[in-house]
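Hi all, long-time lurker, first post. I run a small reading group and we've been trying to get comfortable going from sequence to structure in the token notation. Rather than ask abstract questions, I figured I'd post a concrete chain and ask someone more experienced to write out its structure so we can walk through it together at our next meeting. Sequence below, copied exactly:
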Amino acid sequence: MRHCIYPGTFDPITYGHLDVLDRAARLFDRVTVAIARNPGKNPVFQPEQRLALVQAAIAKHSHVTATLFDGLLVEFALAHKADAIIRGLRALSDFEFEFNMALMNRHLEPRIETLFVMPNEQFSYTSSSLVKQVARYGGDVSNFVPPEVAAALKTAFAQ
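-- Answer (accepted) --
Happy to help. Here is the structure in token form:
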């Protein structure tokens, strides 16, 4: 049974993330969405909120689960008996960072492969940061995130 980890902060999860996830779900028997606690990024949503939003968004996939994690991704992947790490590449600008991260992960744990997946081009410009910026100023983010996420962003920025 082939298992991959799809890591990220997912603050918030977007349709671009879900497109990458759909592609990974077609390739692997099991997918774990690993939500990094990552307080250094100053997330809008607490880890438990991000987990709940991700779980709602992945409900259609019977072989996809979500969980929180801390620490090194490769250690998490080993502990969960994963074969690979999935990373989305939206644009060439993502490649250098992701390439360096993949090489470091390979150095730390050569048995875990990193696979890069490109989302549909309609999501190539969508990022969680841009979605949050639009939502912060009252813009409509419904084309970029699931309805539960749009509502949560509206609530978060109304306070």
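A couple of things your group might point at:
The domain at 3-125 is CATH 3.40.50.620 (Rossmann fold).
The helical segments are 15-27, 47-57, 73-79, 92-108, 128-136, 147-158.
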